[in-house]
TrEMBL record, chain A:
It holds the Pfam family TSEN34_N. Constitutes one of the two catalytic subunit of the tRNA-splicing endonuclease complex, a complex responsible for identification and cleavage of the splice sites in pre-tRNA. It cleaves pre-tRNA at the 5'- and 3'-splice sites to release the intron. The products are an intron and two tRNA half-molecules bearing 2',3'-cyclic phosphate and 5'-OH termini. There are no conserved sequences at the splice sites, but the intron is invariably located at the same site in the gene, placing the splice sites an invariant distance from the constant structural features of the tRNA body. It comes from Haplochromis burtoni. InterPro entries: tRNA_endonuc-like_dom_sf, tRNA_intron_Endo_cat-like_sf, tRNA_intron_Endonuc_cat-like, tRNA_splic, TSEN34, TSEN34_N. This is tRNA-splicing endonuclease subunit Sen34. Keywords: Lyase, mRNA processing, Nucleus, tRNA processing.
UniProtKB/TrEMBL annotation, chain B:
This is tRNA splicing endonuclease subunit 15. PANTHER family: TRNA-SPLICING ENDONUCLEASE SUBUNIT SEN15 (PTHR28582:SF1). GO terms for molecular function: endonuclease activity; nucleic acid binding. Residues 128-150 are annotated as: Disordered. It comes from Pundamilia nyererei. Residues 141-150 have a biased composition (Basic residues). GO terms for biological process: tRNA splicing, via endonucleolytic cleavage and ligation. The keyword tRNA processing applies.
Length: 322, 150
């Protein structure tokens, strides 16, 4: 596939994402991401200040998930991309556009912890049992019913008035009957329960009922147990600090894909492979990943954290010598 | 054919061992003979096949390997070439050593059948070449195609 086609497809797919906005429904995650993107742009200058409240992270068997919309916005505004996992209710049978929750990379979670910007949310809302939820729902329904009956009465009166004024001047008896009906309406009107319109609030479906975060997740300490994990984290932090956006590079056999800006707008420039300086790598593997990189028009970066907390990068490129 | 004693034809002398460039490399006293052999093959490729200029060999004491220095043509910048047998392993540290010499580095992997693969290595983040235009907005064509397939 030509690169130009890819670029164009990306541009058109951006258009398609915005067309997923269904009228009146502003909960589509893609739309939120676009909004967050434009917010993030304005905040480019103040990337270092993290004055925003903590992001709620739910741990599902050690997988860090972000569920709430404001948390997703906050995560994206900090330049962390993550991966959406859920299906969208209106378009279930496809994998092109996914919905919440957002799965964070271990490095992204580590970065949030380091900035003290992540807080653990409980898996289940133990405080909010089923009974309380049900009670709250019933109260809301009752309130809605009362509002709706008032409105229905108004509607009925208006309809009768319109019928009265629309009647011929000659038919006075019909007029009189209508007037009497109008007067009786206030006493006799009943709004049946079956006629009530029930509102389903998908935007709040149980996720924001969780009480606010309690414990801040502890900072990500240098474990030293797994050198490769540590190398990955150092590289992630350094590249993020330079303003690049990183996602996982499973498709390309590397550790990260490095984008010069938001992944929704750019193609990746680099495939980052994280090794420690002393780690011995088979030359054939180096050739393989370099060849792959040249086939997909990305530069392969060998990244190693150095001794003085700096990370050194080596770019591998095709030599052009056949 | 001939008698038992001394009758067998002596195998022809190994021309590689006698080549002055190879002997130069041998004088650098590198223990890894496979690497020296690889360096020689790269040397021959650069000088005879690609006709590069000013090809010379140097020793890297930290890595204990033979490095080559060459220019692609007159006036071109000098490059350092690191020849390695393909089955060997390499560390990022050793690559950094070679990069620290200050010249652009070409890593050359020499396979068992003498196939040579050159990879350019640079310090830092080198942006890949941008895609060539002109660009055409594909628009809805992708979706139209998918609908037709259904």
């Amino acid at each position: 596939m030509k690169r130009s086609e890819l670029c164009s497809r990306r541009k058109s797919s951006v258009g398609i994402a915005s067309s997923l906005v269904l009228p009146g429904r502003r909960t589509c995650p893609q739309v939120v991401l676009m909004e967050a993107l434009s917010c993030g742009e304005r905040r480019l200058g103040s990337d270092e200040e993290y004055a925003a409240p903590a992001v709620g992270v739910s741990l599902c068997d050690s997988a860090p998930l972000v569920w709430r919309m404001q948390d997703l916005r906050a995560v994206r505004a900090q330049g962390l991309v993550g991966a959406l996992l859920g299906s969208l209710p209106r378009t279930p049978r496809q994998n092109g556009r996914l919905g919440r929750p957002l799965l964070l990379l271990p490095e992204e979670e580590g970065l949030l912890r380091e900035r003290r910007a992540a807080a653990a949310l409980p898996d289940r809302c133990q405080d909010w049992g089923g009974a309380e939820l049900r009670q709250k729902h019933e109260e809301e329904e009752k309130k809605s019913f009362e509002e709706q009956s008032v409105l229905a009465l108004e509607d009925r009166k208006l309809a009768l008035l319109r019928a009265m004024t629309g009647a011929e001047s000659g038919a006075t008896s019909a007029d009189e009957a209508l007037r009497r009906r109008l007067q009786a309406l206030d006493q006799n009107f009943t709004f049946p329960q079956s006629a009530m319109a029930v509102q389903l609030s998908t935007a709040r479906a149980g996720l924001s009922y969780c009480p606010e975060a309690r414990a801040f997740l502890q900072a990500y300490g240098p474990t030293g147990a797994e050198p490769r994990c540590d190398a990955r984290y150092q590289v992630f932090r350094d590249l993020r600090g330079r303003g690049f956006y990183l996602t996982s590079a499973g498709k390309f056999g590397g550790d990260f894909l490095v984008y010069p800006g938001d992944p929704l707008r750019f193609h990746a420039h680099f495939i980052a492979v994280c090794v420690s300086l002393d780690e011995s790598v088979c030359l054939l593997d180096v050739l393989a990943v370099a060849r792959l990189g040249s086939n997909v028009k990305k530069t392969v970066l060998l990244c190693s954290p150095g001794p003085d907390a700096r990370v050194c990068y080596t770019s591998l490129q095709w030599s052009g010598m056949i | 054919m001939s008698g038992a004693s001394g009758g067998e034809k002596r195998p022809p002398p190994n021309w590689i061992l006698q080549h002055p460039a190879y002997q130069q490399m041998k004088d650098l006293q590198i223990e890894d003979s496979a690497q020296v052999h690889a360096a020689f093959l790269v040397y021959m490729d650069l000088t005879e096949v690609r006709r590069w200029k000013e090809v010379s060999c140097v020793k890297s004491s930290e890595l204990q390997v033979v490095l080559l220095e060459a220019r692609e043509k007159e006036g071109a910048p000098t490059l350092t070439i690191l020849p390695l047998p393909a089955h060997q392993s390499v560390t990022h540290k050793s690559i950094r050593h070679v990069l620290d010499r200050g010249f652009p580095v070409l890593l050359c992997a020499v396979a068992a059948d003498s196939t040579l693969v050159y990879q350019r290595m640079t310090d830092g983040l080198v942006t890949p070449d941008p895609p060539v235009g002109p660009f055409q907005d594909m628009g809805r064509r992708q979706h139209r195609k998918r609908r037709q397939q259904r």
